[in-house]
Structures are given as structure tokens and as C-alpha cells.
Amino acid sequence: MGTDAMRFGYSIPNNQGVEDPNDLVALAVTAEQRGFDSVWVAEHLFHSSYVAKRLGDRPYHEALTILTAVACATKTVRLGTSVLVLPWHDPARLGKTVATLDHLSLGRVDLGVGVATTKDEFENLGVAFTTRGRRTDEILGALQALWTQDTPQFKGEFYTYEGLKFSPKPLQSPYPPLLIGGASNAAHRRVARFGDGWHTLRQSPAQIATGIQKIRDLSQKSGRDPAPFKYSITLHFNANAKAPDAPVQDRTALTGTDDDIIDTIKAYEAAGLDEIVVGATTADVNRNIDAMSHVMERISPKL
Question: Which domains, and CATH codes, for the chain?
Fold first, then answer.
């Protein structure tokens, strides 16, 4: 477990059907003003499966465009992705976009990445669903080459670079923290091989503790020191009078009374988490602001 106090991020609802993206930027500014350490956005490109059920005809705004606007409107909050779906991205274009954003924000980017499970979306994008794991690993290697080599030399199954300079390099050295998403064995191996941390969803404190131990063991076996790794999660937040259904070690959301939520956060902290990203999971701007106030005024001071 880290020695620092639990950090709090806020999940900006670019994935909840907010009509005006300027409202999302304003929420990020409010999160910074309220004392959050970071703001995060999610990514889907098409309204696929569960996204379509949630949004209907309402918009899902593009992750890095929102973070670019947020970078220009804020000063201190870190800018996270929870998560970008790497197999949908060309590494050179993504590498340039992220490096540019890192300079624009004066080095505040945390790049959360994953593989996604929306098969219909992969089909629409012309990316073979069965290659998503291999492609993700390769893109991570390609990004590292693009960001650290003056003239990147990289040869893979999907991408090959040689003989041309690539710039800008990111402001953060050697590059923005790569936070690997997912909770599968493959995801744990990916953290150990490429990651600077693990950023996951829908995992209980018990699952977090097990996952962190697996990542540490895998990292040590591969000759990497896991000590600097950061561990974070995005969780639904809903303070109410209804007691959580599950015992504290098995909870996967921040719900119930303030005391219930504090107990859940303490269980995550004991499991090894450094940061919890809370989200109100609604397009209602005022409900998002209320959730921010609740966390920073009623929950955080009691931890």
C-alpha cells in the first residue's frame, strides 16, 4: 500500500449523453476547484451494445478532445483516460496526440488503456476482435519506441517504423504513466510487462488485493520493480440511505450512507489502491456537482 493518503479523481461524464461538451469542461473545472486530484474520461466510438442501451440518440463525446479542452481550462488536475481502447488507435497518431496533450497540460496526462469487449464495435471499425490482445501489446511497445527514440525503430505484426524522426516527445519523462486496464490474467501480465500502474473497473477490494499481488509477482519474475506502480479504480458513487448489498470486501461501488462509503474506501486503501475515481453516472450536471461536493466535504475529511 502507498504511504500517501487516498487520492480522489472525478469521472467526467463524456459517456453519459451530456448534450453540450462545454458542460463537461465546466465540470472538470469544478472538480479542480473542489480539490480533486484528477479528472477522467471514457472511450467508445460507436453506440454499441450497452452504450446504445444507455444513451439512445444522445452523444458520447470524444475522450482526448474533451481532455484537450480541459487541459486549457485547468491548472493542477491530472488528466486521465478510463480507458482508451488501444486496438482502435493508430499508434503514431495516438502517440503524437498524447505527447501534444502532455505539453499543452504541462505534463498532467495519465494514459489508461484497455482492450474492450464490444465485438460489434470492433467489426464496425474493421479491427479483428480476436487480435485485440496482441494488437494492444504491440501498440504499447510501438508507443514506447515512438516516445523514447529520436528515430523510432520498431518492427511488429501490425506496425513497423524506421528511418523517420518522430516528435514531439512527451513532456513527462520518459512518457505519461501507462495505466493498464482490465482484470484478466492477460491484463495483469500486460501491467507487469508494459505498465506504470493498473487502472481497473468493477473490482472489489478482495479482487484488487489479489490482482495487485499477481502484478507484483509477475513484475518481479520479469525483472521489473513493481514498487513505483500506481493502482486506481473508477467506481460508481451514490450516497443514500440504502445499505450496500455486499460485505465490504466484496463491494464494487461507493453506495449507502457516508459511513458505508468510508468503510468501502478504507477497504480499497487496505487492499493497496492509491486513487479512487468517483462517478455519478449521470448526464445531470447538477447531480455531478452534488456528488463532487459530497465526496470532498463529507467523505474525504473523515478518511
Answer: 7-302 (3.20.20.30)
